[in-house]
Design goal:
Transposase YhgA family protein, Rpn/YhgA-like_nuclease, 159 residues, double-stranded DNA endonuclease activity, RpnA
């Protein structure tokens, strides 16, 4: 059920998801979270800019009473407290556009990927050649990274 409501003076949507269950399900909390995310996804796909508040409700009429399992999806993790910290915080961001190349060069194995991604729109990747050779000489690249670099270089030459 989708309701159009005022939330703290702003227009919004309240989406209520009701699941009927006659037996306890160890994965129910996660299933309810999946339903909630799916409802949010459909809302965004309908060209809305803000997410609706989705309230998943389990309507339980089973023999085991009261409902014997947790309805908190965090409890499904080996470390619920760590999961709470990860999923109740902004996601980590690595913005290489503001990271100096000298700092990127210290990142060892990931440095080549970061440099190439940072400068991907640069017309002449030959300007990175000295840095790339340094990383290769220091042994921070694998064979698959070199093949990927070769493909990227070949693709940029066709522009």
């Amino acid at each position: 059920m989708l309701y159009s409501v005022q939330m703290q003076g702003n227009p919004g949507y309240l989406h209520v998801v009701i699941e009927h269950q006659s037996k306890p399900d160890k994965k129910m909390a996660f299933r309810m979270m999946r339903y909630s995310i799916a409802a949010m996804h459909r809302h965004l796909e309908a060209d809305h800019d803000k997410l609706p508040l989705v309230v998943p409700i389990l309507f339980y009429q089973g023999e085991a009473t009261p409902y014997p399992l947790s309805m908190c999806w965090f409890d499904m993790f080996y470390s619920p407290e760590l999961a709470r910290r990860v999923y109740n915080s902004p996601f980590p961001l690595v913005d290489i556009t503001i990271t100096p190349d000298d700092e990127i060069m210290q990142h060892r194995r990931i440095a080549i990927l970061e440099l190439l991604q940072k400068h991907i729109r640069q017309r002449d990747l030959m300007l990175l050649l000295e840095q790339l050779v340094t990383l290769i000489d220091e042994g921070y690249t694998s064979g698959s990274q070199l093949v990927a670099m070769q493909k990227l270089y070949a693709a940029t030459r066709s522009y």
